[in-house]
Structures are given as structure tokens and as C-alpha cells.
Amino acid sequence: MNINGDPKTAAAGSEKIIRLLASSLLPTRHGEFRIHVYQPVDETVEHVALVKGDVAGKDGVLVRVHSECLTGDVLGSMRCDCGEQLDAAMAKIAEAGEGMILYLRGHEGRGIGLANKIRAYQLQDQGQDTVEANLALGLPVDTRDYEVAARILSHLGVKSIRLMTNNPRKMNKLADYGVVVNERIPVITPHTPHNIGYLRTKQQKLGHMFDFE
Ligand SMILES: Nc1nc2c(ncn2[C@@H]2O[C@H](COP(=O)(O)OP(=O)(O)OP(=O)(O)O)[C@@H](O)[C@H]2O)c(=O)[nH]1
């Protein structure tokens, strides 16, 4: 499919409609990607597809669906594994020569937003875990929705994916929106004293698959 940066729309009926707002080449430390910016109609949030190679019409495309994490992805926070996972996923795609990162905005803090995530960190410093802290703030544990990711994959003509994640629920949520997930590829990053508690809680309470041995 020819993506040239002209605004286009994808999906119809009761599905969320997305527009392609802009595209460009993006040289990165993991080589050259193509960046596409998408926006659901009637929403202001902009999402990113970072694509390497020609993925249209392909099966088993290597995909990382990544939730925005300003502290981890941009600031190098070691409280979580987000930044390292993003880097590892880009490296794997670069090595494979084909694949994509779907960078979902509005997912910050598993959907509660940046300020609330930082409030949750304060509670975590007082002994609560990442799940308890959200609940103590009167907020849901995880409100993330993956319809935009499904619509972008469809717009880019991807037929099926190999999903880089430790979160089986993410696979199921994407499948609910019609994404064919052939395989789950773990994205394991080294644990540190700063994030080991967070990773253990993800494993024990949120269903993430890690092997700490
Ligand atoms: N509320 C809250 N959100 C967090 C915390 N640490 C990281 N996050 C957010 O969690 C999101 C990433 O979700 P994770 O549960 O780490 O991972 P995942 O996307 O479900 O699964 P993977 O594909 O394996 O990474 C990002 O939006 C982060 O901002 C935290 O302590 N509290």
C-alpha cells in the first residue's frame, strides 16, 4: 500500500475511524524507519506507527504494541521496564529488517495519565505495589484499549503478527479487535533493584509472563 502522507481514513461502521495525518522517513539509532502519525476522528491524541520494511500483505509481521511511558521511554526511569523494552523491540526489528512499533499515546500509567502515575509512585515508595497504588487513588488498574492498534495494522495491510510482549492479555485484547496473532515473543529486559518489585507484581497480579530464575 502506498503511504504518502496524505490524510486518509481506515475502518468503518461502529469501528473507531482513524486518519493518517503524516508520514516521513525517520533515521534512528536502530537504523531507518518510516514514521506514520495516526489520529482517531473526533479525538486529539496522536499515535505513531514506526515501520521498517514493507509490511503490507505480510503474515507474521514482528510487532511491538507499546504503551506510552514518558518516564521510562524518554527520561530513562528505572522504576519500570518500558524504556528498555522499547529499545529491545526496535533492535529486534532492525535485526529482522522488517516490523513495526505501534506507540500508543493516552496509555500513560496504564491509562490513568502521567500525574496520577506519579502520585501512584509516591504511594509505591510508601510500600504499596503498582496495583494497590492505582486502587488507593480510586483509579482503575488498567484502562488501556487496543482498538487503535488494530485499525492501524489493518490500514497498513498487515495480515497477521508476531507480538513482542510479556502480557498475554494484550494478545487477547488485540484478537478481540480482529488482529491475528500467530505468536507471542517475550521482551525480557534485565531486572534491577529499582524495578524488580514492579516486575514481580506484574507477574503475580497482572498475568505477565517472566521467568526470574
Ligand atoms: N499506573 C502505573 N503505570 C505504570 C507503572 N509503571 C509503568 N506504568 C505504565 O504501564 C504501561 C506499560 O505497561 P506494562 O504493564 O509495563 O506492560 P504491558 O504493556 O502490559 O506489557 P508488555 O508488552 O510486556 O510491556 C506504560 O503506560 C507505563 O506508563 C506504575 O507503577 N503505575
Automatic annotation (TrEMBL):
Query: Where, in this chain's numbering, is Zn(2+) bound?
Result: C69, C80, C82
Q: In which pathway does it act?
A: Cofactor biosynthesis; riboflavin biosynthesis; 5-amino-6-(D-ribitylamino)uracil from GTP: step 1/4
Q: Which family does it belong to?
A: Belongs to the GTP cyclohydrolase II family.
Please list the residue ranges annotated as the GTP cyclohydrolase II domain: 23-186
Look at the named UniProt entry and state the broad enzyme category this protein falls under: hydrolase
Q: Which reaction does it catalyse?
A: GTP + 4 H2O = 2,5-diamino-6-hydroxy-4-(5-phosphoribosylamino)-pyrimidine + formate + 2 phosphate + 3 H(+)
NCBIfam families named among the record's database cross-references = PRK00393.1, ribA
Under SUPFAM superfamilies, the record lists: RibA-like
What name does the UniProt record give this protein? GTP cyclohydrolase-2
Write the gene name.
Answer: ribA
Which domain of life, per UniProt? Bacteria
- So what EC number does this one have? 3.5.4.25
Database matches in InterPro entries: GTP_cyclohydro_II, RibA, RibA-like_sf
